[in-house]
Amino acid sequence: MSPDARIYLSKALSIMEDRSLLRHQIDWAELRSKAFSRAGGARKPADTYGAINVAVSDLGDRHSSFWEPDDAKERFGSSAVSFDGLRGRSLQGGLGYLSLPGVDGSQKAYDRYVRQGRNAVARADRSEACGWVVDLRSNTGGGMWPMLAVVGPILGEGKVGMFVDADGDKSAWSIRRGSPSLDGKSAGWGAGPSVAKSAAPVAVLTGKRTRSAGEAVVVAFRGRPDTRFFGEQTAGVPTGNQTYRLSDGAVLVLTEVKDADRTGRAYDAPIPPDEEIVKDPRPVARNQDEVLERARSWLLEQAACRRP
Fold first, then answer.
1. pLDDT in tens, the chain (308 residues)
2. Dihedral sign, CA of 184, 189, 190, 194?
3. Number of domains making up the chain
4. What is the rounded radius of gyration, in angstroms, for the C-alpha atoms of the chain?
5. Structural domain for 161, as ranges
């Protein structure tokens, strides 16, 4: 193996050993030996990609990944991202509805997502919503902070969750003036527009596609008063990642923390809803949304939305 290839592979493995969520459960001598054996004869960094991919899989967290330079540039460098699923509207009965999809890409993409999402919240609250539906069924993850910057006014003020690392150390997520922060440090974007009734009941919709940062939003709503979850269990990777750009532009995305809710309960598996509702596969039910209808019915039963 050439010195360049050896240094490159060693650097990637050292990041994993120092920061991986499951680092205390791994035999690092064995993992390193396996990786260097697989990369034997490598002349350049690209020749070690296969060994790095196998090492990432051997971490066992089901969420870490490795992106070769061209793929990394496309995934993490683009601002041309569509947010067609990011919508807000009013529902019958005085309810607000927010569909919150995932978002990935550059900082510019995140900024556009927050602007569009906050406009959607304001649109849905024009009639001063007595209750909210937050639909996360199409949220496949990405950056959690822009999502929390959109939904922050609905979540309400104060601590809404935390990260827990391999040593049990915690970092708190909080909402202040509708905008998120980590251990008191703002994620940016400034104060969010307020909603008329910040303590309104909330129905959160989840499904099998709700994953990663989408699950972080689910966790942020766990423990919130007057909040109920409808649909199907989530994908099962409610963990936080950190991105490391290597010398040739490749990117190592490493799972470093578990998500935990405001009560301190940590998650590392699929999160079940309070009411499981599986989509009826029959053609007659194709245009029916049983999850949304059940959530809407529950909201209208709550004191804040109950009509005299």
1. 999 999 999 999 999 999 999 999 999 999 999 999 999 999 999 999 999 999 999 999 999 999 999 999 888 776 556 788 999 999 999 999 999 999 988 888 899 999 999 999 999 999 999 999 999 999 999 999 999 999 999 999 999 999 999 999 999 999 999 999 999 999 999 998 899 998 999 999 999 999 999 999 999 999 999 999 999 999 999 999 999 999 999 999 999 999 999 999 999 999 999 999 987 777 766 778 999 999 999 999 999 999 87
2. negative
3. 2
4. 21
5. 87-243+254-301
Closest by CA position to 67, among listed 44, 80, 54, 49: 49
Torsion of CA 219, 223, 227, 229, to 10 degrees: 40
Cα angle 295, 296, 297; round to 5: 90
Give the predicted TM-score (pTM) of the model: 0.94
HEC string of 104-173 equals CCCHHHHHHHHHHHHHHHHHHCCCCCCEEEEECCCCCCECHHHHHHHHHHHHCCEEEEEEEECCCCEEEE
Residues 20, 97: one domain?
no
Quick one: tokens of 206? 């989840």
- Cα(40)–Cα(5) distance, rounded to whole angstroms? 10
Q: Is 107 in the same domain as 221?
A: yes
Distance separating alpha carbons of residues 5 and 44, to the nearest angstrom: 5
> Cα separation of 262 and 279, whole Å?
30
